[in-house]
Amino acid sequence: MKQNNYQGNFLSLLFIVLVYFFTRNYYSPFFWTILGLFLLLVFLKEENRLFAWVVISFFGGNFIVVYLDKFIAGIVADPFYRVIINQILFIIPILSMWYVIKQFNKRLSFFLKKPKSFSILYLVLLFIVAGFLFLFFRKDGFAVFLSIFTFSLIHATAQEVIWRGILLTQMIKITSETTAILFTGIAFSVNTTIFGFSPAVLLTYLIAGLIFGFLTTKYKSILPVILVHTVVLLFSSLNGWIQLPIL
Fold first, then answer.
1. Which end of the chain is more exposed for a tag (fewer CB within 10 A), N or C?
2. Which of 216, 221, 227 is nearest to 178 (CA)?
3. Cβ-contact 212, 230 below 8 angstroms
4. Rounded distance, CA 151 to CA 154, Å?
5. Cα dist from 149 to 58, 180, 233, 236, whole Å
């Protein structure tokens, strides 16, 4: 068991390093590290080997997203539609990780199910209040609000399926619940540096990642976290903290 924990902790930390290299465009050390991970596969036990393949498929899917996004940018004129399509493209790493896990005949996720108990009353009220306030102050408020909500829901769903639905589950199997929440939270925050490094943003996403991980394990479902994540994005966009190409 101790050997498995050591291997699991090492692979989890290696994943964080790979996320950093990938998001900062340090492709030379990234590919050398990936090559090293390939060489390690034969020495790993099944659960750890599965996690290593999940990591490899995660980055493979993200590379496809990056290049498809560049291709789409050349044929889709409307910036907002490009943003939405970009979010939908994250189905690619989800499917690539799903395929790998299926080949090992393992469970995809502990958390892709309805929560045992969760009240969405406050989130619904916040959504309604924000919507009416936005409609009140702008003539085109409903269309803009609907666009922002569409982006927020798609983005939150894709990211939570990836980070809490799949990666958190696989990391729990090779470490522990607490360790997995911590490591996925760190990797989630480092992943945001793809938009440029900012200590404040990094810390914000780290806290958010830890909270999302805690809520996921508490309610045994990613549905509450998707709702919370959506509302957070919604309010961030309405307050101008996140800029979307919406007229």
1. N
2. 216
3. no
4. 5
5. 26, 30, 8, 11
- pTM value is 0.90
The widest CA-to-CA distance across the chain, in whole angstroms, is: 63
Closest CA to 241 of 155, 153, 148: 148
Question: pLDDT tens, 151-181?
Answer: 999 999 999 999 999 999 999 999 999 999 9
Among 166, 168, 163, 158, smallest CA distance to 217 is for 168
In sequence order, the 6+-apart residues with CB closer than 8 A to the CB of 58 are 93, 96, 97, 162, 167
Residues 6 or more apart whose CB falls under 8 angstroms from that of 208 comprise 188, 189, 229, 232
3-state secondary structure of 175: coil
| Nearest residue to 190 (alpha-carbon basis) of 214, 166, 206 | 206
Round the CA-based radius of gyration of the chain to a whole number and report it: 19
**Nearest to 166, CA basis, from 56, 76, 51, 65:** 51
Q: % helix / strand / coil in the chain, to the nearest 5?
A: 80, 0, 20
Long-range CB pairs of 26-33 (<8 Å, 24+ gap) are: none
> Which tokens go with 191?
């992943």
Q: 44-53, 178-187, 221-230, 237-246 — which is least confidently predicted?
A: 237-246
Contact of 202 with 193, CB cutoff 8 Å = yes
